[in-house]
Write a structure and sequence with these properties.
107 residues, mainly beta, three-stranded antiparallel β-sheet, 4% helix, elongated
């Protein structure tokens, strides 16, 4: 169990805000410990679940992938394209989830 805690990965910040015309948002993911090992974690976007939900394909481009932290790496980013349109809209939200840790990575 101690080795599992040794490789925890988390979002750098829990909330990000960007203007629709920003073009993209970069979401920071950090490794807190375990710098002596290679660690991987999967990520995926999903439409918001509360309030004004952003919709993949019309508000942002869906993203799925894997981040691999090499030995000594502390930070990675997930870059998600924001789709700009001419509509006047309230603030909209989508989510990014980390999952499928490799070799006991805690998320």
């Amino acid at each position: 169990k101690e080795d599992e805690k040794d490789k925890s990965v988390r979002f750098e910040c829990l909330d990000y805000a960007v203007q629709e015309d920003a073009g993209f948002v970069e979401i920071g993911v950090v490794r807190e410990t375990g710098l002596h090992k290679i660690v991987s974690v999967a990520y995926a976007t999903r439409d918001g679940s509360t309030g004004d939900a952003a919709v993949a394909g019309s508000d942002y481009e869906p993203a799925v992938g894997k981040l691999t932290f090499l030995k000594g790496e502390k930070r990675k980013t997930i870059k998600i394209k924001i789709i700009d349109d001419d509509e006047e809209e309230p603030d909209e939200f989508f989510e990014v989830a980390l999952s499928t840790p490799v070799e006991g990575t805690a998320v």
